[in-house]
Design goal:
Blueprint: E1 9-14, H1 17-27, E2 40-44, E3 50-55, H2 56-62, E4 77-81, H3 85-97, E5 102-108, E6 114-119, E7 125-129
Parallel strand pairs: 1-3, 4-7
Antiparallel strand pairs: 2-3, 5-6, 6-7
């Protein structure tokens, strides 16, 4: 029997590395302020997980059949946990003030968290959750 895979991280294909890194830096991920000249960055996160960014041209070097996705056609939503309900509102305000489109303004979700979604420079939806509070949840719409 084959080994059971363990989750290691996510890899995003990006059109503009500088814009992408600026977005994820604004979220608060540990990305150096130094200009990044490369076409690939593997960001090590907690518990051995990673978030990697590779440009379209870099990806085409090892996958000649790669075709960039249509803008705004991502089928995943990257999720981040924040420490409070207020932090969700603050993150949404900070990112949209910097010009990133809101996909969903902060609201009290039926599953009991404060939640919002913002779109990164490549059209990926990025969601932010507060800790769960059953008192703020409700029935599934």
């Amino acid at each position: 029997m084959a080994d059971t895979p363990t989750f290691g991280g996510l890899h995003f294909w990006v059109a503009d590395m500088a814009a992408t890194l600026a977005f994820y830096r604004l979220i608060g991920l540990p990305i150096s302020e130094e200009p990044w000249e490369g076409q690939f960055l593997n960001l090590k996160l907690s518990e051995g997980k990673s978030l990697a960014f590779g440009t379209y041209s870099f990806t085409q070097r090892y996958d000649p059949a790669f075709k960039p996705p249509a803008q705004g056609r991502s089928h995943v939503a990257l999720q981040f946990d924040l420490k409070s309900r207020e932090a969700v509102d603050e993150m949404h305000a900070r990112l949209t003030a910097a010009g990133h489109p809101s996909h969903m303004a902060a609201f009290d979700a039926f599953w009991g968290t404060r939640y919002c979604e913002v779109v990164d420079p490549d059209g990926n939806v990025v969601g932010f959750h507060s800790p769960r509070d059953p008192a703020t949840g409700g029935p599934v719409p």
